[in-house]
Amino acid sequence: MVERHETATFITPAGELHFARAAERLHVSPGRVSQTIKALERQMVARCSSAASRRVALTTAPPAP
């Protein structure tokens, strides 16, 4: 089950396309944003984002079975 703060931590970087700006909006560290995203990806068994050069890009999740 996904917690409310996890949902916010997923949605905010998707809107900002930047972990540090998302962390600032959420009042947490960029590391916390990254850890939460990684935990959600493990739960969903899908990669949700790709971060390179401090920029975030959403990925396409495989269709649900």
From TrEMBL:
<feature type="domain" description="HTH lysR-type">
    <location>
        <begin position="16"/>
        <end position="59"/>
    </location>
</feature>
<dbReference type="InterPro" id="IPR036388">
    <property type="entry name" value="WH-like_DNA-bd_sf"/>
</dbReference>
<protein>
    <recommendedName>
        <fullName>HTH lysR-type domain-containing protein</fullName>
    </recommendedName>
</protein>
<dbReference type="Pfam" id="PF00126">
    <property type="entry name" value="HTH_1"/>
</dbReference>
<dbReference type="InterPro" id="IPR000847">
    <property type="entry name" value="LysR_HTH_N"/>
</dbReference>
<dbReference type="InterPro" id="IPR036390">
    <property type="entry name" value="WH_DNA-bd_sf"/>
</dbReference>
